[in-house]
UniProtKB/TrEMBL annotation:
Superkingdom of source: Bacteria
Domain (Bacterial purine repressor N-terminal) ranges: 5-74
Gene that this polypeptide is encoded by: purR
A Pfam entry, by short name: PuR_N
Record-linked InterPro entries: PRTase-like, PRTase_dom, Pur/Pyrimidine_PRTase, PuR_N, PurR_Bsub, WH-like_DNA-bd_sf, WH_DNA-bd_sf
Organism for this UniProt entry: Brevibacillus composti
Record note on quaternary structure: Homodimer.
Domain Phosphoribosyltransferase per the UniProt entry, residue ranges: 108-254
Protein name: Pur operon repressor
Upper lineage: Bacteria, Bacillati, Bacillota, Bacilli, Bacillales
Membrane spanning residue stretches: none
Length: 273
């Protein structure tokens, strides 16, 4: 590679780190790529580290030793998360979003790449220290949220299906009780989709009683997987019995007045840490 000036090298290194979050990169990789001494690379990384932390991009962690290196971990400052979620809650609180049954119309938000990227980074930040190996969701609305989260954790996405797909080979299927409707439903996951004993983060867009998330947790037992956490974009407050005990929510639907078309939404448990 053509030897770069230091300013260009800093830009290229920054891009390299951003593109590979949660990946340990040996200093020798940078030294060989740019034809620079390790001491110079270390100085460059100190500059990048300071910029990342001051701008709320994330943190750089250094692992010492022959097998060591540097790792970029995306993080979100609390004040930045608050500003973003307060703005998003304002959008979610628009009475025109109210649907029958007290649900909110969120398809436009879930279809916005920039918004999804910010939400994904919030979840990735919340579970950054949990050694996540896979992000799981159930089709269909949770899919963009899962991919956005997985991007910042640098892990694969596994999608639970409502029905079997011939193209996925043998599957594991379970019946579960929908928390809101109390109906018996089915969800399936291909055997090849998830290695056994994986560490899984579950994400979903909306949670009432938590029947769907509970179903995914039960399904994961068939794969001897470990559920390290659950993140939901919006949870409802008016639930007599929650089927999931531990989860992180970004927003809470506190009260819905269908007749008066009033929606009250507040910050979720993410901000109670």
């Amino acid at each position: 590679m053509k030897k770069l000036r230091r300013s260009a090298r800093l830009v290229d290194m920054t891009q390299h780190l951003l593109a590979q979050p949660h990946t340990l990169i040996p200093l020798t990789v940078f030294a060989e790529q740019y034809g620079a001494a390790k001491s110079s690379i270390s100085e460059d990384l100190s500059i990048i580290k300071e910029a990342f932390e001051s701008q709320g991009v994330g943190v750089l962690t250094t692992v010492a030793g022959a097998a060591g290196g540097v790792k970029f971990i995306p993080k979100v400052k609390t004040e930045d998360a608050l500003d973003f979620m307060k703005e998003l809650i304002t959008h979610l609180g628009n009475p025109e979003r109210l649907l029958p049954g007290g649900y909110l119309y969120m398809s436009d938000i879930l279809g916005n790449p920039i918004t999804m990227s910010k939400i994904g980074k919030l979840f990735a930040s919340a579970f950054a220290d949990k050694n996540v190996e896979v992000v799981m969701t159930v089709e269909t609305k949770g899919i963009p949220l899962a991919y956005a989260t997985a991007l910042y954790l640098n892990v694969p996405v596994v999608i639970v299906r409502r029905d079997n797909k011939v193209t996925e080979g043998s599957v594991v299927s379970i019946n579960y009780v929908s928390g809101s409707s109390k109906r018996i439903q089915t969800m399936s996951l291909a055997r090849r989709a998830l290695p056994e004993q994986s560490r899984v983060l579950i994400v979903d867009d909306f949670m009432k009683a938590g029947g769907t998330v509970r179903g995914m947790i039960d399904l994961l037992q068939e794969f001897r997987a470990t559920v390290i956490g659950c993140g939901v974009l919006v949870e409802t407050a008016d639930v007599s019995e929650r089927l999931v005990d531990e989860y992180v929510s970004l927003a809470k639907l506190q009260e819905v007045d269908i007749k008066g078309k009033q929606i009250e939404i507040e910050l979720g448990s993410y901000f109670q840490k």
